[in-house]
Amino acid sequence: MSGHTDMILVDENGIRIDGRTVDQHRPFKIEAGVLNNADGSAYVEIGKNKILAAVYGPRECHPKHMQNPTKAIIQCKYNMQTFSVSDRKKPGPDRRSIEISKITAEALENVVLTELYPRASIDVYIEVLQANAGTRCAGLTAASVALADAGIPMRDIIPACAAGKADNKVLLDLNKEEDNFGQADVPIAIVPSTDEIVLLQMDGNMTRDELDKAISMAMGACHELYDVQKDALKRRYAKRVVEVETDE
Length: 248
Ligand code: ADP
Known about the structure:
Helix content is 30%, strand content 28%. It is built from 4 helices and 10 strands. The strands form 2 sheets. Strands 1-2-3-5-4 form a 5-stranded mixed beta sheet. Strands 6, 7, 8, 9 and 10 form a 5-stranded antiparallel beta sheet that branches. Strand 6 and strand 7 form a beta hairpin. Helix 1 (95-108) packs across helix 2 and helix 2 runs parallel beside helix 4 (208-247). The longest helix has 40 residues, at 208-247. It starts with 27 loop residues before the first strand and ends with a helix. Adenosine-5'-diphosphate (ADP) binds next to helix 2 and helix 3.
């Protein structure tokens, strides 16, 4: 955000560098149950972002001093692979990945029925294989599907999408150039059944009206993404039924 470029991010016809209009999101692709060895998993592509999420648990929480006697804790680890960006990323956790892990776990706590599993831990791993801006939203979207795939009781699943501002225009779902050289980025996650906002961050500057527009655009995209999440889970369920029937 706020880097300088001479590049025109949105032309006079309102067309962006990747050919999208201002209110168009990148293509969504979601697959549930992609890993055999995790309790639940999902693979998500949002434009050029490629993300894997794996869920283990609920299982006994270690170390024991982290246990909560009234509910399960959600432990989330967001990690960007060294090859996920064009310059090799230094491996291991950094401030950004610690922050994204924290906000992801906090968003998920709004929907997972953690009170059903006192003293347990639900562990969520998000691996960014390829990054092109919006990875925290794609990661949270993948984690929700992976939790549902693991059969963990939830009030709803969470879709997440960002909106922002570049070249003085409010844009949906910023790509890397718009994120780097734009004026604002607002990632949002919602509980679609209630339209409750469970993640809202803002980097950069916008007017109040622009922010309202960005939130409404991102929420609209979240509802579309929600349908794709549900379709992925339905396909996964249908595949499981076929597998059980062939085993019998
Ligand atoms: P998000 O991926 O949720 O939009 P940021 O706004 O922090 O989060 O990052 C925007 C984009 O910048 C990332 O998707 C990625 O493409 C790139 N990026 C982030 N961290 C690094 C890094 N350490 N090295 C290279 N590129 C990075």
